[in-house]
Amino acid sequence: MKQYGPTQGNILGSINRRFLLKAAACITGAAAIGRVPAVWAATFDEVKDQYMSAGIDWRQAAGSRIQLAGLTHPWMETIRPLVPIFTNLTGIEVDVVEQSNTEYITEMPVKLAAKSASPDVYMVWAQGQAVSGGWLEPLSSFLADSSLHDAQWWDDDDNFPGARSFSVWSDGESYTRTITAEAQTLFVNRALLDAKGQSIPGTFDELRATAAALNDGDVSGIAMRGKATGDAVAWPAGGYVFSHGGGILGLDGAVAMDSPEAIAGVDIYARTLREGGPLGVANYHWLEALNDFLQGATAFGCDSSNFATDISNPDKSQVADVATFAAFPKAPSGVSKPNMWHWLTGINRFSENKKAAWLFLMWATSKPTNLLGGAAGLATPRTTAWSSDAFKGAFGSEAAEAALANLANTDGDIMKATWFHPQAGQVLDAFAIAVNEAITEAKDTESALKAAAETARRALGQ
Amino acid sequence: MNVRRGLPRNAFILMMLAPTTVLLLGVTLFPFITALVMSFTNYSLIRPDELAWIGFGNYANLLGSTEFWQALRVTAVFTIVAVAVQMVLGAAIALLLHYETRRSAWLRIIYLLPMAITPVAATFTFRMMFNPSLGVINHMFKAVGLPPQDWLGSPSTALFSLLVVDTWQWTPFIMLIAVGGLAAMDDEPLEASQMDGASFWQTLGHHVLPMLTPYLAFALVFRSIDAFKTFDIIFVLTGGGPGTLTRTLNLLTYKHGIEFLAMGYAAAISIVMLIIAIVASQIFLRRLKLLQPRQARI
Questions:
Q1: Is A82 in contact with A369 (CB distance < 8 Å)?
Q2: How many whole angstroms separate alpha carbon B34 and alpha carbon B271?
Q3: Residue B239: left if φ>0, alpha if ψ -120 to 50, beta else—which one?
Q4: Which residue range forms the structural domain that includes residue B248?
Q5: Which of A7, A451, A269, A279 is nearest to B130 (CA)?
Q6: Which domains are present in chain A?
Q7: What is the per-residue pLDDT across A49-83, written as a single tens digit (0 to 9) for each?
Q8: CB-CB under 8 Å, B255 with A423
Q9: What values do phi and psi take at A70, rounded to 5?
Q10: Bridge partners (DSSP) listed for residue A68
Q11: Is the ipTM of this complex over 0.85?
Q12: How far B247 CA lies from chain A's nearest CA (Å)?
């Protein structure tokens, strides 16, 4: 039986600042102690009406039990304590399984290829692989079923345009829903810049020169990823390539990482790290780069806007009061195209609880849930969450402003050409090795990228 | 009931051995045959529906790729250098322990500790020690006026750092076997040579080492095979970088199988690794006849 609430069309009406701050405290508390505090019972009454205003029967799969799988990520930390709201609303029990990044991306392909029925819902780490492997349930039948989906209530237009395009595959089918929004952003330790009379750079070359000037052996000028793996250095170096007018794969799917534009982008990335980076930067993943910035051991960072949550948190960051956030630098042509990312979730094609899984997916990506997540500092893909005071408070209004500006400059098509390719793993691995070789000067940038392009072409049969 | 009266002796033995044999075949032969068959297909988890028999296609691609030869070269260098250093150190420590009688029991336990530690736990500790800005190794370098090094990220030091960790962990294995060999050694020829006026080095070179050779050969073969397929310390410390300078064949297999999901190709690399290990160890054992105890020259 469908249930219609009185506030349909104005579902955010009763979610006020006080409620969101309380929710944020609950999420933080739950994450800290590993279980849901009793205060959720009170907050549920406040939020329940927002969900009940959806034009669907939330309890149509009551009594089911589903499994949610994901890797260690802020979204998992945020969603886990909110699960009791979903269970209370739908009568569906959810088992949350969280693994480390390495464990997750090695176990899931094997599990899904073996047509395992669990998990029912999972974080999609590589949409190209998952769609090609047939591991994701197409969502069109759910979206077309009015008993399962209230389009007006869910309000896809509230998602960023990039987020909307991320969840639509090249065949026009939708296999996933977006759960985060990230863009490459420049983090600045203002105190270190002020001490040496430097200003925030606006171009890549200014960034390189400023980082080199600030690099004094004890404190580095800049910390970015340098590790030679496809999941490490490829993403931030990608923004440099895109801004110079290049691509790793072109829009036609052809290998493009050895174009003059791509070489120029990688060259300035590598030079910036060579001249301004800390010792050992060639082995840095995002965690090492973030840690350096949080400890005040580097003047600049340039990575996911999501790091702002940690950088702005005085419990985790020694630079919370001196950190500022800026636009991704520009290439000599004046173009700035930071890399982007939207994490995705989807339904396992072999799930035996697809209706319950869909209800969870819709709930987890809805406006109220995103507002709750945003209040805890999660950068969700929804504009309403980003414009809420609670999100700005947790994320930092300056960081939110910079991230939004950078998100607006991203080019989803050129990014998706590589990262959504079914063989993205091979392409990004070759590219990452070349960038790393350029950083360590094992090879010059051009010959490293030409060798990498050959490897990628052979892998793709081009 | 008298089992032996009811069943022929051979049938009884077969029945007793059958469960273990079936289990062993299940966990060794079955995966091997699966990998062998898979290596002749284009099986990929990304495109499972396009599964096809491609004969020696994977092997041809592999042998024609520069990444294979680069990984083979890295694997060979790592194996040869690591095993050579460990053999010398392990045998030397064993000899010292053999002649040190009062504290040898305690020292033996202490020297064996690295081998008893979980490799990944030890490797993470080394990762912290090698950290360029926070690690204890660079701290000591700076204390004596030497410049800090990028141990794991620099092309000139990454492989060396891996060899240090592997040597720290596995020298005790060689030592353990050599200590056993020395303990089992007949002392009479040794005493005779000393009575004839042989020096320590003469006794060592002409008597002790020849008698120790079968034990060291055993250790060498086992350690070589183990070093050849080292994965954990390389994966944790360098991930195969910088560039591909520490990417061994085992890491290449992981890349193609687990990261790229190209199971057929990864299986082909595994089979090639198996063939190399078998051929190398057989050539080594047969040509040098190291499993035959040498006659001590007295």
A1: yes
A2: 11
A3: left
A4: 62-288
A5: A279
A6: 17-181+342-403 (3.40.190.10), 198-337+413-460 (3.40.190.10)
A7: 889 899 999 999 999 999 999 998 889 989 999 99
A8: no
A9: -165, 170
A10: A96, A121
A11: no
A12: 11
